[in-house]
Amino acid sequence: MSMEVNLTERQKHILWATIRHYITTAEPVGSKALVEEYNLSLSPATIRNAFGWLEKVGLLYQPHTSAGRVPSDSGYRIYVDRLMKPTNTLARQVEQTLADRLQRKNGSLEALLRGAAQILATVSGYITLITLPQTQSVRLRHVQLVQVDVKRVMLIAVKDTYETSSVLMNLPETVGEVAEPEIMERELQILSNFLNSQLQGRSLLELADLDWGEIDREFQAYGDLLKMMMSDLLKQSNQPYSAQIMIYGVAEALRQPEFSELPQLQTLLHFLEDEQERLWPLIFAPSDRSVEHSSIPSSRVTVTIGSENPLEQMQTYALVSANYHQGTTAMGSIGVLGPTRMFYENTIPLVEATADYLSDALRQNNC
């Protein structure tokens, strides 16, 4: 949220011009540069006075006595919330590129997510982070029981993400006594149909709370087997967070001066790859968080700038992220990580457009 600082129109314009100039050049901004490049119709002395006031309230700072001004995290926050005007040119470009390059129907969801993240990294020029769908959000699309041999049966589960899991179990002795393969195949098909009628569309979280006592009497002999299978399926699906955040765009980010120092970049990459459990709550929240933007009031994008971040390793960066959905349920999140000196006008619409594309892809696959 924006700081409660009252700015005059002149102060707003000078703050806007200062931040825009710094985003473009990565160099501290002086009064002369603003007069020459932004046609402010103000004297350098008037601009310096405004600089002094903006510095006093914490929106700008002076890295060295003789240097120009640089935006603070609070200055960026006011810029994002009140002053910037998002541009949709790159957002339309990324929408077209996603549509041209990715297979959104009946393809692998993971391949779709990877492709979208790579495209977003290329267009934005920053590091892209994307989370795989959450176990509690994933739902069963279809289940099938298949006999492997006289003593074993396999449960194959297709999720609404089009990922497939399988569990192999030994048949209970009372079931294994059935000798004829045709009878066993018919019974397994009947049981598969029954399971689909009971389980199709349920989330994996719901499966953990099923009341197996309500299973129809004719299938009681299979009750314990099915319960063990579902338990194993849930364990298999509960992947640790560290395996669920994918990182792209490091090569693109190297073009930014903030990433030019190798030790700093190595520290960041180590954190992104090895500390993902701590990073996770910042990137993804099951219920959408949003930052109020006066110019885009309906935005579902979350913007975390520098010191707003509770994680020390991230406090020199900005993260712009948005959830993608299955219906109204947030399945995962895609985000862009870059310096606080980020082109927010481009990045916010880019992230929102990519999240919308992924949500539409899930909807078209009846997810």
UniProtKB/TrEMBL annotation:
Keyword entries, A-Z: Repressor, Stress response, Transcription, Transcription regulation
| Family per record | Belongs to the HrcA family.
InterPro entries membership: GAF-like_dom_sf, HrcA, HrcA_C, WH-like_DNA-bd_sf, WH_DNA-bd_sf, WHTH_transcript_rep_HrcA_IDD
Question: Which SUPFAM superfamilies does this entry report, sorted A to Z?
Answer: GAF domain-like, Winged helix' DNA-binding domain
Q: What is this protein called?
A: Heat-inducible transcription repressor HrcA
Q: What does this protein do?
A: Negative regulator of class I heat shock genes (grpE-dnaK-dnaJ and groELS operons). Prevents heat-shock induction of these operons.
| One term of GO molecular function | DNA binding
Query: Which biological process annotations from GO are given for this protein?
Result: negative regulation of DNA-templated transcription
Cite the Pfam families for this sequence. Answer: HrcA (PF01628)
The answer to whether keyword Transcription regulation applies is yes
Please tell me the species this chain comes from. Merismopedia glauca CCAP 1448/3
